[in-house]
Amino acid sequence: MNYDVVVVGAGPVGSTAARSAAEHGARVLLLEEHSSIGSPVGCTGLLSTRAVAECGLRPSEDFVFNSVRGAFVHASDGQILPIDGKKTKAYVVSRKSFDRTLAARAVEEGAEISLRTRAVGLDRDFESGTCGEKADRKSSPTSPVSPASPSFPTKLRVIRNGRPETINAAVVIGADGVKSRVAQYAGLGKPARILPGVQIEAPYTSEDTDFVELFPGSPAPGFFAWTVPLDEKVSRIGLAVEANRLGKGENPLSCLEKFLSSNPHLKARYGGGMLDFVMGGIPIGPLEKTYADGVLVAGDAAGQTKPTSGGGVYTGAFAAKIAGKVAAEAALEGDSSAARLSEYDRLWRKGLGKELEIGMKIHDYMGKLEDRQLNELIGSLNTPRILDTITEYGDMDHPSVLMKKLMLSGNSLRLMKAFGTFVRTLF
Ligand SMILES: Cc1cc2nc3c(=O)[nH]c(=O)nc-3n(C[C@H](O)[C@H](O)[C@H](O)COP(=O)(O)OP(=O)(O)OC[C@H]3O[C@@H](n4cnc5c(N)ncnc54)[C@H](O)[C@@H]3O)c2cc1C
Question: What's the predicted TM-score (pTM) here?
C-alpha cells in the first residue's frame, strides 16, 4: 500500500487537501476514523461566501439551509448594533452534507477514501533529509512500488476495520482536527489555546432570518454567544469561552443554560428543549511549524482557525489547497524532506499569517473587556457613518481590513476613545 499522499481526516480541510493533491497528479488516500463522513458535527455551519468558494463549491440547496447578510450585536445594557452587509455574506449549512460534498469531489478527482481507518502511529525514515531516489512514476494502483521503496519513507500506522495495518506514503497530511495525533506524532505540538464551545439546535423565533445575533461579554467570558437561524423557527444557539475566564463552578454548558434562561432577548424567543447538541474545541494560535519530514498539518490540526470568530473552514481550506499541491509536487519529485515541504508553511503564512496574528490581538483585547466597556464600545460604533464603513468594509474572514478603514476614517477620535490606544498597536 503505497501512496504519494495520505490525508488523515475527512473533514472539510482533509477533503480539500486530498482533492488538491489528486488534481496535482498524486495518488491519494483519504482516511477517516468514523464510519460516516461529516458525523458527528462540531460546528455552527456559518460559512462566509468566500469560505464556500475557497472549498471549490457553489452554494447549493444540497447543503445550504439559509443565507445571512449581517449581524445584530447585543450589548448587555440592551443596545443593539445592527451590522447590515446589504447582500449575502454567509450561508448556514448542514456540515454533514457539506463535508460529504467535499469528500465526493476529492473522489471525483481520483482520491481513494477509507472509512473506519484511524491513524495510530507514524514512523519515518529520513536519514539524509530527503527521501532518496527521485520518483520516476506517477504511481498508480497498476504499477505498485515495493514497500521498501525510499520514495515512500513515511509509514502511517492505522487501525482499519479493527485491524492494524501500515500505509506507506511520501507525504502524510494531518487534517485530523483539534486533537490532531499526526501533529503530535511529528513533534509539531499543539495550538496555543483551545476555546471550549457548546451549541444546541432548538426552537427559536427568529425576528429576521437574514441576521445572526451575537452576544459578547458576560454570557460567554472571553469570547461570545450566538444565535444562527436555520429558518424562522429553528436556530443554532451556542457559545465558546476562554476557559481561564470562567468563574468557579462555571463551564460552557452552565454558561449556555444561564444564557438561555436569564437573557431577556433569548427568554422571549427560545421555545425550550433541543433538536441537536454539539460540543467541541476551537483551536486558536497556529502551530509554530506546520511541516516536518514527510508530514504537513492543516486546518484545526494546525490551529489555523480565526481567533475573532472561531471559524476555521475558510482558513483551513485556503491552507489545504496549498498543502495538497506542495505534498503532491514534493512526492512526485521524490523529495518529501522537511526542507522541501517548508514551502507549504511559507505560502499559507504569506496568505493568512498576518490576519491570524491581528485576529489574535483583537481576540485578546475584546475578551478582556468588561460588560460596561463593551456597552461603551458598542454605543460608540452605533453611528450612521461608522455603520456605513462597517457595511462597506466588514469582512468576517479579514477583520483587519475594517479595523484599518475605521482608523483611517474621520471617526478615529471617537474610536480611539472606545478602543484606547489598542488600535494603534494592531498593525
Ligand atoms: C461549537 C463550534 C462552532 C463552530 N462554528 C463554526 C462556523 O460556524 N464556521 C466555521 O467556519 N467554523 C466553525 N467552527 C470551527 C470548524 O468546525 C473547524 O474549524 C473545522 O471543522 C475544521 O475542519 P478540519 O477539517 O480541520 O477538522 P474537522 O472538521 O474536525 O475534521 C477532522 C476529521 O478528522 C477525523 N479524525 C480525527 N482523528 C483521526 C485519526 N486519528 N484518524 C483518522 N481520522 C481522524 C475526524 O473524525 C474528523 O472527521 C466551529 C467549531 C466549534 C467547536
Answer: 0.93
